[in-house]
Amino acid sequence: MDLTEHIANWLGSSVLTSDQGIQCTSGLGAVFGSTRGEIRQDNQDRVIGASFQSSYSADRDFLLYALCDGMGGGRDGGRCAELTLATVINHLVYHKEVESGLRLRNGVIRANEAIFEHYRAAGGTTFTGMIFGRTGRVIAINAGDSRYYRFSSGKRDFIQVSEDDTLAGELAKLRGKSVSDLKAEHLSNYLAQFVGVGEDIVPRVYDESEYVRDHGFLLTSDGAHSMGIDTLSRLILNAGNSSMAIRRLLTVSHWLGGHDNASAIYIPSNVRITSNQNRDSRFAVLRLFTAGASKDLYLPKEIFDVPERKNSQSMLSYEKNKRPEEKNRSDGGFNPKSQENGGKSISQKNKKQSSKKAQLKAKKNQAEKNAQLDIAIEPAVDRDGEGGNGST
Questions:
Q1: Which are the contacts of 99, defined by CB distance < 8 A and separation ≥ 6?
Q2: Which of these, 87, 82, 31, 89, lies nearest to 64 by C-alpha position?
Q3: At what angle do helices 100-119 and 77-94 cross, to 10 degrees?
Q4: Residue-level pLDDT at 79
Q5: What CA–CA distance (Å, rounded) separates 224 from 82?
Q6: Which of 70, 86, 121, 378 has the fewest CB atoms found within 10 Å of its own CB?
Q7: How much is the pLDDT for 327?
Q8: Coil, helix or strand for 113?
């Protein structure tokens, strides 16, 4: 079991499906909430918060909040949502783009490819997420009709920032009018793009860096924001705290009929990555929160030096309170002598790889020095009567 599948399965096992209750959890500075509603037989919404920190690769540290609404009219909507969030987090952890917003966008594109490859556009999910990086940048990504709002209780403002990827929304943009003016509300249920649509996906990217200090953010599925922005804003701005805001929001969605799954994430103002003073230099820590559950995963330093991580036993270490020396565990525990690595430890393998890399780097440096010498003398050479320095 690799990291993507591990996270996806954990998300699936954490969803409350037995009744119409509300799941609500606080963690990573935010509040995560979700409910099945009164009508639907299952909950295909998924919410997650993920914090990644390491002592040896701080430029990859991130704080992510994301929400997916699996397509009820397609196949396996809940599973598509789980795999999308898990694929995005896997990409954020293991890929080396320094800018966290770029990693998030590429992670969504990778998830789209994976879902399309399996379902061929017959299944999919929306995606709304915000990522906070070490540099202070805050980037939001949106695909589908899930939304995010920016608000300030002090200024009493509450606005929808993301654009809905629906046929109604696209028509409104083309005509320069609102959906209500066009009487196109019946087209709001048809998605123009979603994760799993295929190669045509173009995730919408928003930079929220200048607002994060004095504004909060609310991520919602359509079952939560279908009550309208006036009711939604009053619930959020007049709540005494973030937990109260989410519980009120989901309760009102029930009172209004509970026709759809409803989920939301409340992110308060001035959220940032905090330093972990108790880091173990051998591991990176991936902390996960969803509505109703949390989990800590420890990823060994060695795996970040391996270009492709298809070896499940070398990808995922152990969960909290498990010792790293535990081997051959059925839950994908870290095994430093995986048989798939030819019986050799990852560290031994990395030493050989490092030696080869050092040799290649030395050759590259020498070639660059030779090239610099060539460049240095090139301007002094008159070629076909051009490019000289005035003397021949």
A1: 133, 135, 137
A2: 89
A3: 140
A4: 96
A5: 19
A6: 378
A7: 32
A8: helix
Residue whose tokens read 């005035």: 390
Q: How many CB atoms lie under 10 A from the CB of residue 187?
A: 17
In the chain, DSSP finds a helix count (H) and a strand count (E) of 10, 14
The β-bridge partners of 143 are 127
According to the model, what pLDDT value does residue 54 have?
84
Q: Is-contact 262 34, C-beta < 8 A?
A: yes
Residue with tokens 């070896």: 311
Does residue 204 sit in helix, strand or coil?
A: strand
Contact in structure between 334 and 318 (CB atoms under 8 Å):
yes
> What tokens does 208 get?
């929220």
Q: Compute the distance between CA of residue 279 and CA of residue 268 in angstroms, rounded to an integer.
A: 26
Q: In degrees rounded to 5, what are phi and psi of residue 288?
A: -125, 135
Our measurement of the distance from residue 337's CA atom to the centroid of its chain's CA atoms, rounded to an integer in Å, reads: 31
Q: What is the pLDDT of residues 252-299, one digit of tens each?
A: 999 999 999 999 999 999 898 877 655 677 888 999 999 989 999 998
Report the pLDDT value the prediction gives residue 360, as an integer from 0 to 100. 62
Under-70 pLDDT residues of the chain: 16-20, 177-185, 276-279, 304-392
